[in-house]
Amino acid sequence: MVQAKPGGERQVLESMYSMIALVFILVACVELCDAATVVDVYRLIQYDISGAPFGSRLANLNHHAGSLHFAPGSDLSRTVLIIPLRELNISFVKEYITQNQPLGGLLFLLPQIFSIENRERAKSNHQTDGEELLKNDLAELEKLLIHSKIPYPVYFAFEDDDIEAVLADVKRNDATGQPATATTGGYKLVVSVPEPKKRASPTITNIQGWLSGLKTDGDANQLPTIAVVASYDTFGAAPALSVGSDSNGSGVVALLEIARLFSVLYSNPKTRGRYNLLFGLTSGGPYNYNGTHKWLRSFDQRQRESIDYAICLNSIGSGDNDLWIHVSKPPENAYIKQIFEGFSNVAEELGVKVGLKHKKINISNPRVAWEHEQFSRLRVTAATLSELSVAPELLESTGSLVDGRPFVNEAAIIKSVKLVAESLARHIYGHEGKNVQIFADNSSLAVNPSYIKSWLDLLSQTPRVAPFLSKNDPFILALKKELEDHTDEVNVQHEVLDGMFTFYDSTRARLNVYQVASVTFDLLLLLVLGSYLIVLFSFLVITTRGLDDLISLFRRPPSRKVKTA
User: Fold this and answer.
1) Which of 28, 62, 184, 360 has CA 20 to 30 A from 538's CA?
2) CATH code, domain with 210
3) Are residues 219 and 191 in the same domain?
């Protein structure tokens, strides 16, 4: 009987230790056991220009959620502000960013109309006043963010029921003067991703295809060439959302359709023109058309001199009926007059108004505002056709968050295709000034709206920021295959992007939203569980060993001297 006592005590003590360990495990898990929702988020771009940092410089997030209803004077250094675009206060955001005020992070909630997956309004080109206002607000916000250095994480997400329910709770708590903190609880936003790393030697890829003109026997002279060019890559505040449906998805779609139309004409020797046609899909457009520069430099002098003129297509899908031809040479130049008159005549027949904009280039200035300027710097006659009357600033309007599928007008692209194709054809076949429709509707040479729509849909779902596209990206391979179907001698050129631009990865992530309890709740829970276990332990000892054994557990053991005596 005497030997059984230590074993019984040991069992009771082991049970007690197990229960205490369970208490600590439960308390440790209190903050993480109640996940409210998981959201796809898209990080603000992080990049450098000549070593100067821009964009969001951090990616990891682990702070409590807050709203714009926070109390004045609140410490937001460990708070992620959730800001719906519909409630955007651009002055507040600008103040916090420009004055470097402490903030844990920013999460902007965008309406579904700006989502890549949104197709509900793809067939409708009518914009409400509310949508136009949202577009303007988002464009202003994006301009602010991409030109600022922000020392905390900035993410974009799209509105849905889950995140809106979380925001409603956060607003309610903030309005009552109980913002989320470690002591009050609330919601915690967590993004766990590796530290952003530099993209080493990002590649830009140019794709070109030729349609050879008809050369008569005994003609030793090289045929003249007309080039049709469009830059296909984009740049925006969130690289994973930068699809550029209009800039410059519309230009790419138009180029492919023009190549398809002329491939039909040039497939028959009887209708093949005495001009070579060169189709170029270039990369590096947002970065001073760096890809175009390297593409042209790869030509030998003879090839460049053979180019009669080049037409660059840029943002032709959301205008009404106004287009502009931008040139670097004076309007009085004979070639420029010929190009403008040819386009103007066809535009009048189509009910489109075409204007001429002359902007002299400065060779010493590295800024290249339009793609045709890269041709002009090499003394090649060129022009850019665009709905934009003024060139955008560097890294602006080249695939922004507001440039999505619902805001592109397919009819505008079809008109632009007709304008370019008809103008080129009349020049090639000597029908300038004549009312001859070579690409007439309902003929075998008619523009194909289905073809335009399918490619526009693809481009509107494909982010195309060049530093994040590999050489063998499926999209680049798709462009190459499409040119191979309609042209000859398709070549692909891989180059390294200009070293003045540096980009960082980690463009998208998963945001975990946890509903966390307050420290007060944790302490109360610990007190309740501890009290319960003490009562349970006391009951077990009394019923199995008796009250004296329970009291003996809390007695001070006799000293060693007493035992020796």
Assistant:
1) 28
2) 3.40.630.10
3) no
What's the CA gap between 157 and 41, in Å, rounded? 5
Torsion-angle region of residue 406: left (phi > 0), alpha (psi -120 to 50) or beta? Answer: alpha
Tokens of 268: 């028959």
Distance CA 485, CA 490 (A): 10
Integer Rg of the chain from CA: 34
Determine the pLDDT at residue 15: 54
Q: How far apart are CA 379 and CA 393, in angstroms?
A: 24
Per-residue pLDDT, 543: 76
Q: How far apart are CA 292 and CA 500, in angstroms?
A: 16
Let me know whether 297 and 391 are in one domain.
Answer: yes
Provide CB contacts within 8 A for 496, sequence distance 6+.
Answer: 201, 202, 203, 204
In a domain, 397, yes or no: yes
State both tokens at 414: 């079809």
DSSP state of 437: -
Residues spanned by the domain of 159: 35-198+507-516
Decide if 258 is inside a domain.
yes
Report CA dihedral (68, 72, 78, 84) to the nearest 10 degrees.
10
Q: Which two tokens stand for residue 276?
A: 């070579």
Q: State how beta strands 353-358 and 322-327 pair.
A: parallel
Pair (270, 322) in one structural domain: yes
Q: Which residues pair with 494 in a beta bridge?
A: 205
Q: What is the number of structural domains in the chain?
A: 3
Same domain as 140, residue 58: yes
Task: Compute the distance between CA of residue 81 and CA of residue 156 in angstroms, rounded to an integer.
Answer: 12
Same structural domain, 258 and 139: no
- pLDDT at position 521, please? 57
Residue-wise over 106-119: b if at least 16 C-beta within 10 A, else e?
Answer: bbbbbbebbbbebe
Here the tokens at position 140 are 């202003």
| Separation CA 546–CA 499 (nearest Å) | 82
Looking at the structure, tell me whether residues 178 and 214 fall in a common domain: no
Q: What pTM was computed for the model? A: 0.86
Residue 152 placed within a domain? yes
The single-letter code of the amino acid at 488 is D
Q: What is the pLDDT of residue 13?
A: 52
Contact call for residues 239 and 154 (beta carbons, < 8 A): no
| Mode of pairing for the β-strands spanning 501-503 and 46-49 | antiparallel
Predicted local distance difference test score (pLDDT) of residue 2: 42
Tokens 């409708």, residue? 124
- Are 198 and 219 in contact by the 8 Å Cβ rule? The answer is no
DSSP string, 337-405: HHHHHHHHHHHHHHT-EEEEEE----TT-----STHHHHHTTT--EEEEES-SSPPPTTSSSS-TT--G
Residues 6+ apart with CB under 8 A from 457: 119, 122, 405
Residue 487 has a pLDDT of 96
10-residue mean pLDDT series, the chain (565 residues): 48 53 51 69 97 96 92 88 96 93 96 80 58 94 97 97 93 78 74 94 95 76 92 97 96 98 95 96 97 95 94 91 94 94 95 95 91 96 96 93 94 96 95 85 94 97 96 96 96 93 96 79 69 74 70 65 48
- Ramachandran category for residue 497: left, alpha or beta (phi over 0 → left; psi -120 to 50 → alpha): beta
